[in-house]
Amino acid sequence: MKTGCMENFMKISQRATLMWLFLAIFLPDYVFSQSPSKAVETVNYRLKWLFNTSVAGDLYADTAGFFEKYGIKVTVKEGGPERDAIKELELGHAQFGVASADQIIRALSKGSPVVVIAQLFQVNPLQWIYRPQHLSIQTPTDMKGIRLGVTFGGNDETIMRTILSKFGMAETDVTLFSVRYDYTPFYQGNVDLWPVYINAQAVIIADKLAKSGETVNFLNPDALGVKFVANSVITSEKMIRERSDTVSRFQKGLMAGWNAAMDPKNHARVITVLRQFDRDTALPVMEKQLAATRPLIQPLPTTVIGSIDVSAWKETEQIMLNQNQIPAPVHVERVLKEAGF
Q1: Helices (H), the chain
Q2: Which residues does residue 224 pair with via DSSP β-bridges, in sequence order?
Q3: Are 50 and 80 in contact (CB under 8 A)?
Q4: Quick one: CA dihedral 106, 109, 114, 120, positive or negative?
């Protein structure tokens, strides 16, 4: 009996040894080499705009492996008119997103638990295009008596009303024209100033007019001292509270991607990435758009990409208060968490 028991024990031991050898050979290496705390996390990142040069850094951070470097897998989702990053954060459909300052401030006014972790545009890309052959604007008061386009209900209307007020002009001093997606009224000369994004439609319109021998200039609100913050990266209070390490790694990967994307040395690589996602924009136009994006993201060589301009955020909130777009102060500075949370 003792001999039989010993033989059975030896057989069981041999089988167990063979089983462990099998597992060691055929199971993936990470089962043995990584702990759960080092497993790659997956998060959703909802953009504000469609895939174009304005999201170059977001796409580059993903495709060039910057998120992966920080142990995080990011699904970058296209934005657009029907997409609301703040709503998706509130519903848990996305962990990170992009929204403009006016969207964020309105959301805060309604109690949304949104937090800003980076400011992408240091200069708002929204400007007004005009023909210097037909109109000379040395100071904003030169706009008296002209027709200027605004998107009623859009932040360009808010910015233009702020410019008029800042320089002592009433709405009756100009004629406001309701802007749509059709640029024909501007091409035909029926509207003197037309709102554009300097790194998007402005390039297309300027090229078209150049073919007719016309030149263009731009009215830049930022140069007039009107600071109205554009697109910024957001997350939720819950993410900050419960997954702060994930937020930190996402933030670092994203900013590393934007820094690389805005480096002229990587111009060709960034264009290659953009063309994978945006097949409708002609290459020469895309290259000009990328060149126009760089000074908006990094106006000076010393500018830290992604840094939050607290004073500009406070001014944006004050502008919205002055125009009764929010009923009371939200103290936006309390949710600006550039680093360290």
Answers
A1: 2-26, 30-33, 56-63, 66-69, 85-91, 101-109, 155-166, 184-187, 201-210, 237-242, 244-262, 267-277, 283-297, 310-322
A2: none
A3: yes
A4: positive
- The tokens describing 137, both together, are 């604007």
Distance of CA 41 to the CA centre of its chain: 22
Q: How many CB atoms lie within 10 A of CB 324?
A: 7
**H or E element, residue 148:** strand 147-150
For residue 316, the tally of other CB atoms under 10 A from its CB is: 27
Tokens of 217: 């200039």
- Asked if residue 198 lies in contact with residue 140, where contact means CB atoms within 8 angstroms, the answer is no
Q: Which residues touch 190 (CB under 8 Å, ≥6 apart)? A: 147, 177
pLDDT score of 113 more than 80: yes
Q: Which residues contact 172 (CB under 8 A, 6 or more apart)?
A: none
3-state secondary structure 183-252: CHHHHCCCCCEEEEECCCHHHHHHHHHHCCCCCCEEECHHHHCCCCCCEEEEEEHHHHHHCHHHHHHHHH
Answer for the pair 147, 195: CB distance below 8 angstroms, yes or no.
no
Q: Which tens digit of pLDDT belongs to each residue from 212-266?
A: 999 999 999 999 999 999 999 999 999 999 999 999 999 999 999 999 999 999 9
Q: Supply angle C-alpha 48, 50, 54, rounded to 5.
A: 75
Cα–Cα distance, 338 to 341 (Å, whole number): 7
Question: Which secondary-structure segment (H or E) carries 128?
Answer: strand 126-130
Give, for 126, the enclosing helix (H) or strand (E): strand 126-130
The model carries a pTM of 0.86
Write 82-90 long-range contacts (CB < 8 A, 24+).
Answer: 83/46, 83/47, 83/48, 85/46, 85/47, 85/48, 85/234, 86/112, 86/114, 86/234, 88/44, 88/46, 89/46, 89/114, 89/234, 89/235, 89/236, 90/236
**What value, to the nearest 5°, has the Cα angle with vertex 242 and ends 70 and 115?**
80
